[in-house]
Amino acid sequence: MQQRTPTPPPAPPSHSLSPPPPPPVPSTTRLTQPDEFSIYREYMDWPTHIPKSAHSTNPQSTTEHHPPHSVFGPGQHSSSHIWAPFANATTFHLLKWFYNSDKKTLEDLNRLVYDVLLQPDFSVHECEDFSAAREAWCLDKPDIFNSDVWKQDSVGISLSQKEFSWNTEAEAPVVKVESVWHCSLTKVITSTFQDSSASEFHLKGYKEMWKASEDSLAERIYGEVYTSLAYLKMEEKPTIPPDSAIENIVVPILLYTDSTHLANFGDASFLLWPGYLFIGLLSKLLVAMPDVHAAHHFVYMPEVSNLYIGIHNYGC
Predict the structure, then answer these.
(1) pLDDT for res 256
(2) For the chain, what are the domain ranges?
(3) Mind listing the pLDDT tens digit for each residue in 224-246?
(4) Where is the composition biased (Pro residues) (predicted)?
(5) Global pTM exceeds 0.70
């Protein structure tokens, strides 16, 4: 009698509704040629534009068409003249001399003659309808704040109290800080890409590597936002359509604020807290150069009164 091999039972039907995951797409590393320092880059995708090495970049190319006033955003009547917001160089020289010191001295009188009256672009005819009050108002009300770029609002702050906690944040007293000037972060970022300095932006992150010789192991260099592990992981998150012809860019921003001393009246001092935005796609070597004007203004905050500090410490 011949013995048959038993047939195994059929596999139970799968209850999984989702299809199996697709096989991983093999990654392709794109390498640049080493520079004079034996430093090269590893890209996952080629960017549409690759700036020169930050180690040999000439800052003149960045600052040539980048006037200082552009960091405040476009105004209604933005001017590229060095004497803006005044109408002419004569008014500029007069106001510059007037605000040069608190108390005028004989040395200031010398400056009036040599730095103002004897300047080649000084014209007596431009002083015929001169008004000091009107020109001082130009400094207090620049055209940038008359445009739709900057907006004035109040900000509510929930106050804490030392050695005491509220049951909910809604129970905490709220104080309003008035006269906070701000502009849209989206507009600020957009304006930076419309500026000529955007040619220095690194549109894609990469690994910066150094290899001393053919026989040595490559070492990774850390030092920029766009070469950090955190930024490279951020680039993996956005979903990019496969047929998209538009380059997708992850734009890191760095925010910073510091007090600016405006004036002293007796024992009282007046401070303003400007907020600055830096684009992380620009090399830190260029950001550190004052002539690059990499700090873009996006908010002006008044100093918080000592009254609020008293509420925090003593609840009064």
Answers:
(1) 93
(2) 30-85+142-314
(3) 999 999 999 999 887 767 666 77
(4) 1-26
(5) no
